[in-house]
Amino acid sequence: MSSRIFLILFCIIIIFFIEFNNGAPTVKTTAKTTTKTPKTTIKVQKNSTEIAKPALLGGHTPWTKTIQPKHKKIFDDYKKIILKKLQEVHNVSKTFNPKPEKFSVQVVGGFNYLYLVKLPINKYASVSIHHVAWKKGHYGKETNVIVPPKTYELDDKNV
């Protein structure tokens, strides 16, 4: 009788460990290797324009100085709103002409078009334009543009 109880307890413990580990085999830990895998960017064709795939899921593509006409048009369509928000947040003059210096895209519930605009104080300001192509009446609204108060140095390695 006691051997049956022992066997049942043993089986329950084994089942518990298998469920806890999801059936995966245990792996021995080894010392860290110092070799790094090179980062690669994969180009994807979409509507005859190349967009670099982001390194991190949900992250934005790497910053680029070559701004395609389609993305320049989006910036120009929102230029009045961008200037208004830059005046509010960064106190630029009304005669300031915002021009995108760098560009990036982030795929979210639509697209975030991220631009870096060079300010008169020799710093970059970030401008984000949220665009949902499949929603009618979404394009051109002031709520789509975000200008955070943070500025970036021109030689900042993160931008």
UniProtKB/TrEMBL annotation:
Gene3D superfamilies with a match to the protein in the record: 3.10.450.10
Keyword terms: Signal
Signal sequence coordinates: 1-23
Keyword Signal: yes
Domain of life: Eukaryota
Name the UniProt record assigns to this protein: Cystatin domain-containing protein
